[in-house]
């Protein structure tokens, strides 16, 4: 017998208007895409006036000490390099003396983006210590493009490798200790010293050839820039992590003074309707941009709180994290978190990262807790780095050691992670010269 169950159910259906749909799209935009969208809106809306966020150029000139003017060293075609670096520097929490040093050093970069001035001369010129100058140079070296403010080709290449491929210890050591031999084609000599194959040395050469020996050229000409603009900045001080939106490129959307009298005065019905629609669109754009900023700030702060170990200690300390965790904490839908982290980049003390990078898979531990796959990879790399090169650890032995630390993964998983780290098998590692892990 068939029973018909006739019940009335209430359902809520959200009708998404075109403006709501477009507002969601704006959250998906990168900073560069958002600027383009705003500029197009200004072309179509006569009521909309854009005000550029110009930073204080006086900061760059007034803080330089007396004597030979630092601006005397600047060529006009390099102005865009200074502008781009300063766009990043203005978000740093710097005191007056640090600003003075960093502005001076940036102005002293050569056409290729190198800093070739003797540190003691700069220290004397600015009346600071050599150590303070070194710290200022290191601060600039954390900016984009990678390799900027390097003091030599060797340092420039090393900065790029350490940032882009931090696990490639072989490439880092070759750049630090054997760059001249590599450039002269002495592959066999390098291979013998490091106890690796000539094929591996040639792979490193190919990797190094893909780097940019002249980082300033990445911004030349300025209309053809090939770098990623960070959408956010994260700054780390003692017991304090600060998140800032990169809004310097985003113009302020304002009502044009020219149309204000028309909005308040008496006009014909057709003109009045046109003005109301354009005014409504302008207010919508202002609200949407503000909401986008608020959402990005909220999401990045939640990520930074969960991944504080990363921002204090580096990529090897990344913790497991899901979109759902951040969504619950921010009281937003998972799809909103996905939009907010898509095509967005954050500048950190360890380089530029896409926001998606901070969401990692969780590996359960025997004690009921969990860790990230990134952290396990780091542990595997560390175990292999410290192993006896005459009796290297097998994948099973590594799995057993990790088990003692409550990390339950199979030999096959160890092998998979080892391959992802580009670490050779036990047989190929036997007798190899130990690679200095401090290079990272």
Describe the structure.
The chain is an alpha+beta fold and 440 residues long. It folds into four domains: 58-145, Arc Repressor Mutant, subunit A; 153-211; 249-358, no CATH class; 362-439, Homeodomain-like (Arc Repressor Mutant, subunit A). 50% of the residues lie in helices and 8% in strands. It has a four-stranded mixed sheet. A two-stranded antiparallel ribbon has the order 1-4. Strands 7-8 form a two-stranded antiparallel ribbon. The chain is globular. Residues 1-16, 55-78, 220-226 and 433-440 have low confidence and may be disordered.
Characteristics:
disordered C terminus, 21 helices, disordered N terminus, two-stranded antiparallel sheet, 4-stranded mixed β-sheet, 440 residues, Arc Repressor Mutant, subunit A
Q: Please state roughly what percent of the residues sit in beta strands, choosing from under 5%, 5-15%, 15-25%, 25-35%, 35-45% or over 45%.
A: 5-15%
For the largest beta sheet, what order do the strands appear in spatially?
A: 3-2-5-6
Number of strands: 8
Q: What pattern of helices and strands is seen along the backbone?
A: HHEHHHHHHHHHHEEEHHHHHEEEEHHHH
Low-confidence runs: 1-16, 55-78, 220-226, 433-440
Largest sheet: 4 strands, mixed
Structural class of the secondary elements?
alpha+beta
C-alpha geometry: globular
Average pLDDT, rounded to a whole number, is 78
Helix content: 40-55%
Termini separation: 74 Å
Give the topology.
Elements: H1 18-28, H2 31-44, E1 48-51, H3 58-62, H4 79-89, H5 96-107, H6 119-126, H7 130-141, H8 153-164, H9 169-177, H10 179-183, H11 187-194, H12 198-209, E2 232-237, E3 240-245, E4 252-255, H13 260-264, H14 269-306, H15 308-313, H16 323-330, H17 334-341, E5 345-348, E6 351-354, E7 362-364, E8 370-372, H18 373-386, H19 395-404, H20 411-420, H21 426-429
Parallel strand pairs: 2-5
Antiparallel strand pairs: 1-4, 2-3, 5-6, 7-8
Helix pairs in contact: 1-14, 1-17, 4-5, 5-7, 6-7, 8-9, 9-12, 11-12, 14-16, 16-17, 19-20
């Amino acid at each position: 017998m068939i029973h018909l169950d006739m019940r009335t159910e209430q359902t809520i259906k959200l009708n998404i208007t075109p403006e709501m749909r477009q507002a969601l799209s704006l959250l998906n935009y990168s900073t560069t895409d958002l600027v383009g969208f705003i500029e197009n809106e200004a072309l179509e809306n006569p009521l909309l006036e854009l005000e550029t966020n110009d930073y204080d150029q006086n900061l760059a000139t007034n803080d330089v000490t007396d004597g030979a003017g630092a601006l005397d060293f600047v060529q006009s075609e390099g102005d865009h390099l200074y502008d781009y670096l300063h766009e990043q520097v203005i978000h740093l929490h710097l005191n007056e003396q640090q600003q003075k040093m960093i502005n001076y050093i940036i102005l002293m970069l050569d056409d290729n983006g190198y800093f070739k001035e003797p540190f003691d001369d700069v220290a004397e010129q600015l009346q600071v210590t050599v150590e303070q100058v070194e710290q200022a140079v290191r601060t600039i070296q954390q900016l984009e493009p990678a390799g900027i403010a390097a003091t030599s080709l060797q340092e420039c290449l090393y900065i790029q490798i350490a940032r882009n491929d931090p696990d490639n210890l072989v490439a880092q050591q070759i750049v630090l200790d054997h760059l001249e031999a590599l450039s002269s084609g002495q592959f066999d000599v390098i291979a013998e010293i490091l106890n690796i194959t000539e094929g591996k040395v040639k792979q490193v050469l190919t990797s190094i050839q893909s780097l940019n020996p002249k980082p300033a050229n990445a911004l030349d000409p300025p209309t053809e820039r090939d770098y990623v603009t960070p959408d956010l900045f994260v700054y780390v001080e003692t017991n304090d992590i600060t998140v800032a939106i990169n809004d310097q490129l985003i113009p302020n959307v304002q009502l044009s003074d020219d149309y204000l009298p028309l909005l308040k005065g008496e006009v014909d019905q057709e003109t009045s309707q046109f003005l109301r629609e354009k005014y409504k669109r302008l207010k919508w754009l202002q609200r949407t941009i503000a909401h986008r900023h608020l959402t990005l700030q909220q999401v990045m702060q939640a990520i930074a709180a969960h991944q504080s170990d990363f921002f204090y200690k580096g990529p090897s300390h990344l913790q497991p994290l899901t979109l759902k965790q951040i969504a619950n904490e921010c009281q937003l839908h998972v799809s909103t978190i996905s939009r907010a982290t898509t095509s967005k980049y954050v500048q950190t003390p360890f380089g530029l990262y896409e926001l998606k990078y901070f969401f990692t898979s969780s590996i359960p531990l025997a004690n009921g807790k969990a860790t990230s796959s990134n952290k396990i990879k780091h542990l595997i790399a560390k175990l292999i780095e410290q192993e006896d090169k005459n009796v290297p650890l097998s994948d099973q032995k590594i799995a057993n050691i990790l088990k003692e630390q409550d990390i339950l993964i199979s030999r096959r998983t160890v092998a998979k992670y080892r391959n992802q780290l580009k670490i050779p098998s036990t047989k190929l590692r036997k007798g190899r010269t130990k690679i200095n892990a401090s290079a990272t």
